[in-house]
Amino acid sequence: MALDNGNDDYTQDGTVDLKGNPVRRSKRGGWTACFFVVVYELFERMAFYGISSNLVIYLTEKLHQGTVRSANNVTNWVGTVWMTPILGAYIADAHLGRYLTFVIASAISFFGMSLLTLAVSVPGLKPPQCVESDMADCKKASTLQLAIFYGALYMLSVGTGGTKPNISTIGADQFDDFDPKEKGHKLSFFNWWMFSIVFGTLFSNTILVYIQDNVGWTLGYGLPTAGLAISIIIFLAGTPFYRHRVPSGSPFTRMAKVIVAALRKWNTPIPNDSNELYELDLEEYAKKGKFRIDSTPTLRFLNKACVKTGAKDPWMLCSVTQVEETKQMLRMLPILIATFVPSTMIAQVNTLFIKQGTTLDRGIGNFHIPPASLGVFVTLSMLISIVIYDRFFVPMMRRLTKNPRGISLLQRMGIGLVFHIFIMMIASLMERRRLGAAKDHGVVESGGQVPLSIFILLPQFVLIGTADAILEVAKIEFFYDQAPESMKSLGTSYSMTSIGIGNFFSSFLLSTVSRITKKHGHHGWILNNLNASHLDYYYAFFAILNLLNFVFFLVITKYYVYKAEVSDSMEVIEGQLRGMAPTATD
Questions:
Q1: What is the H or E stretch that residue 574 is in?
Q2: Cα 325 from chain centroid (whole Å)
Q3: For residues 321 and 286, is the Cβ–Cβ distance under 8 A?
């Protein structure tokens, strides 16, 4: 038990207060600090999804863009939002620290949201209303109007790049890995973190999209702007309770030094005894609250970087721990690549899935369902699936496998990949049914409403939510846990990079398939008139792509070796209880 006035009450992981002083567990961190972080995320997600969920509708109806262009503009922006965290993670880890980076970035995000609200509100900043059925006949937005609108959107993406990789890491930093009780709490942190995100998304996909479609875009964007302001205030209110980590230098520079040193010593033999390799004393790591990592045989070429040759240049000689940190980041790259395809599938939710919804009967009596509101079923499905997984599946599997997580994180990700195969098969079948109904009722050429309920799309939305609960939570936890202690923000940005590249890949595939299928006088798979398109073929293509990606995933995971904190979590905790030295071994 921690003593209020004893050394045992101080954290052992190197966390400090804003002035750089050691902090007590009883005064800072833990679930008290995480309360402010989690509440911030709830409001911030409301703001983000309040924009992204219905953006394709605004681009189509207000800026008069066609199917391919509007969908690609959404995925390009969302892709940028999820790619900029690499820069944010670099700034946090190398220079400003997570807290200060987050505060500055959140101010940029708020300014971008405010400008975006202005762009959708002032009549002179958008083209005039158009009633033509074909958007090609409508007046397009001017260069100035587009510059202001997209400038605001991409300013928001820059700010988000500084908040996304750091807010979840700040939350995880509130638990001391050297304290068995706190480490146990962190094992379930990411599931409940995702749970809070889903609640913010739920509000966006119901209340906000309804307001945008039926009341107006000014209020529809003004509310998430206010929500973002509230979330920033809430986060700042928790400042006295946070634990902070001192910036440990650029992770990219540390990795580059290892690679360069290994290449410069290309012909230098590696000694058989790892004790002959260069390493700092354990006390050096203990003073900084860091782990020392033992040498491993994986990616053995990089071990040349820590072979002693007499040179002390950091670009010629690196410690074993520095080499192992680099290995940890590089070993995750094939797993990262395998997540690009499912991220591409998720991109369809806010683009083509919603465009499909606009062609269907959305009425329930006198009430008309906004197409983007179907996203609420993704949210609800995810909420229910997370609870079922965490409360029922994990305990059941834990008894069988003795793994504290029930099954390994990679096994969980693999199950999510299988879900995506079936999701796109079902989406293809539902689209074929929609196209058949359009043909039977003679609305193919006119592009009129298909007399089918919008709820025929429900299965693909629900299953996407279930897949997210399985795959996305595991992906976030995997990249955080597998990253070395000094590169946690960079590790967290891996999961975000996956979504970003998935969105860019979606833009590439949509443009490429649309162009190729129109060659040689063919009708094309993706047209502005979805009733004359062949999204069923496009979704079937996605199902095949997911199957090939799953085979790739099986191959690369066969050779992956977990860090101790993931595969042997309970053993690490038990070892600390017995007073073992805080050394992490791959």
A1: helix 569-577
A2: 22
A3: no
CB 325: neighbour CB atoms within 10 A? 23
Measured CA to CA in angstroms, residue 546 lies from 33, 359, 377 at distances of 40, 27, 22
Q: How far apart are CA 553 and CA 560, in angstroms?
A: 11
CA 457, distance to chain mean position in Å, is 25
Which of these, 452, 449, 433, 461, lies nearest to 374 by C-alpha position?
461
Structure tokens at 136: 């090609």
d(CA 239, CA 242): 6
- Cα(227)–Cα(106) distance, integer angstroms: 12
451: enclosing H helix or E strand: strand 450-453
User: Beta strands of 263-405 (E only): which ranges?
Assistant: 292-293, 360-361, 363-364, 367-368
Asked which of 53-57, 424-428, 508-512 is least confident by mean pLDDT, the reply is: 53-57
pLDDT tens digits for 363-384? 888 888 899 899 889 888 988 9
The pLDDT value given to residue 448 = 87
How far apart are the C-alpha atoms of 148 and 9, rounded to whole Å?
A: 52
Tell me the C-alpha distance between 519 and 401, whole Å: 54
| Helix runs in 204-270, H state only | 209-214, 217-237, 251-264
Angle at 20 between CA 14 and CA 23, to 5 degrees: 55
- Residues 212 and 216: their CA atoms lie apart, in Å, by 5
Which CB contacts under 8 angstroms, 24+ apart, belong to 403-408? Answer: 403/567, 404/187, 404/569, 404/570, 405/187, 405/569, 408/562, 408/566, 408/567
Contact 448, 358 (CB under 8 A): no
Burial classification of residue 190, based on how many CB atoms lie within 10 Å of its CB (0-12 exposed, 13-18 middle, 19 or more buried): buried
Residue 585 has pLDDT above 60, yes or no: no
Return the pLDDT at 3. Answer: 42
Q: Which of 429, 418, 375 is nearest to 539 (CA)?
A: 429
b/e map 351-377, b = 16+ CB within 10 Å: bbbbbbbbbbebeeeeeebbbbbbbbb
Nearest by Cα to 55 from 378, 345, 341, 349: 349
pLDDT per position as a tens digit, 517-526 = 988 778 889 9
Which of 75, 42, 37, 87 is CA-nearest to residue 493?
87
Residue 170 CA to residue 34 CA, distance in Å, equals: 8
Virtual torsion, Cα 230, 231, 236, 237, nearest 10 deg: 70
Ramachandran class of 539: left when φ > 0, alpha when ψ lies in -120 to 50, beta otherwise: alpha
pTM of the model: 0.82
Q: Which residue has the tokens 């899935």?
A: 353
